[in-house]
Amino acid sequence: MLTQTDHPQLLPATKERSAQIAFLQGERKGQENLKKDLVRRIKMLEYALKQERAKFHKLKYGTELNQGDVKPPSYDSGKCPSRAPLCSDRPFHVRKVHV
């Protein structure tokens, strides 16, 4: 049990801990905002890549590439699948160009 003599000594420690908690909560919020921004950018790049693939396919083969519903990503979805594959519909392949 705490006595009245112990209480003044604990007050600065409590304030320190409260300040540290507030700082760490701010750090976490910043990290969450950074993650949301990066996920938004990834979605934008995936969408642009799908458009480029469709454009290339049309120029090369003269037909539309059937990609299902290719629509711009919603950036405000609020959901972020942590382990969702990127560009899962078609893997990226690098072709060697002979000069």
TrEMBL record:
Highest taxon of the lineage: Eukaryota
Chief location: cytoplasm
Classification of source organism: Eukaryota, Metazoa, Chordata, Craniata, Vertebrata
Entry keyword annotation includes Thylakoid: no
Membrane-spanning residues: none
Location of this chain's protein in the cell: Cytoplasm
Residue ranges constituting the Striatin N-terminal domain according to the UniProt record: 18-75
GO cellular component entries: cytoplasm; dendrite
Single annotated GO MF: protein phosphatase 2A binding
The protein's name in its UniProt record: Striatin
Family: Belongs to the WD repeat striatin family.
PANTHER family assigned to the protein according to its UniProt record, in alphabetical order: STRIATIN
Keyword Coiled coil: yes
Keywords: Calmodulin-binding, Coiled coil, Cytoplasm, Phosphoprotein, Repeat
